[in-house]
Amino acid sequence: MPLVNLKKVLSESIEKKYAVGSFNAANYQGVEAILSASEEMNTPVILSIAEVHFRYLNLKYFIPYVKNRIAQCSVPVVLHLDHGLSFDTCIKAISMGFSSVMFDGSTLPIEKNIEITNKLVQIAHMANVSVEAEIGHVGGGEGNLEEGSEVDRSKFTKPEDAEIFVEKTDVDALAIAVGTVHGPYKGTPDIDNSLIKKIRNTISIPLVLHGGSGLSDDDFRNAVKSGINKVNFYTATSIAAVEKIKQIINGPKKVSFPDLTKAATDVIKEIIKHQIEVFGTKPLKL
Ligand code: 13P
User: Fold this and answer.
1) Closest ligand 1 atom to 140 CA
2) How much is the pTM?
3) What is the pLDDT of residues 116-155, one digit of tens each?
4) Strand ranges (DSSP E) for the chain?
5) 273: Cβ below 6 Å to ligand 1?
C-alpha cells in the first residue's frame, strides 16, 4: 500500500463518524508495533514522529527505513510530523518525505498562527502533503510523568476562532483543546463534548484530539460521536512498555536485551489494537 496523506486517510471519517489513531514512534520498536497492529486490524493508521523525539533518532537513516516499511504495509499509512514547532522543521519533514505535517502554533497569537500555517499550507499542498494546525492549547507533556498535568479551561478552543482559522488557511485538520492534556492527568479527565459538537457544526474539516492517554474507552467513544476524527495517543504505550520490562527484569529468569524489546513491542501492539477498536476506525479503499 502506498504512503497516503492525512486528508486522504480522514476523507470518510466525518461522514462515517469514526476516528483514525495517530500513534507516536520514537524508535524502531514503536514503528513495528504501530504498523503490525494496524495490519492485523486491517485499518489505516497515522504513524507520527514528534519533533521532541528527534533527539532519540538518527533521522537520516530512520526515515528511509520507516518509508520502506510503510511501502510494504498492507494498509494505508500516513507518515506524520507531530508537533512541528517551527515552519523550518515542517519544511524539513516535507523534504524528507513525510506525507503530513502538524505546525503547532498554539502558543502564538492567532494571527501569527494563521500567517505561518497559511504559508506552510501553500508549500505543503504543492507536494501533496497535508497540514494539521492547533488552536486553543492542549497543555501537559511527557516531562510530567509523576504528577500529571491539570487542564486549563482558559485555553479551550473557541468555535469562532476555529471558524476564522479554517476560513483563512486551507488547513486539512484542526487540533482542538476540549479538556485533554498530553501525558498523565491530574484528576479525572472531563471532555467537553458539547464544545466538540459546536466546533463540528461550525467547521467542516476533520477534528483532532491530542492527549489520548488516560481517557476511558467511553471518553473516546463519546468524543468520536461528538465529532473527533483523529486521536493522538502515545504516553500510555510508553508507560506500559516500561512496566513490562520492569516486570521481566524483576522476574526469576535471566533474559536477553532482544527478549525485552520484543516483549515491550508486543505490549504496545496490543494496546494499539484495542485503541483502533475503540476509535471505530474503518478500512479505507484507495
Ligand atoms: P498522549 O501522550 O497523552 O497520549 O498524547 C499524545 C499526543 O497528543 C501526541 O501529539
Assistant:
1) 3
2) 0.97
3) 999 999 999 999 999 999 999 999 887 678 889 999 999 9
4) 20-24, 45-50, 77-84, 100-103, 130-135, 173-176, 207-209, 228-233
5) no
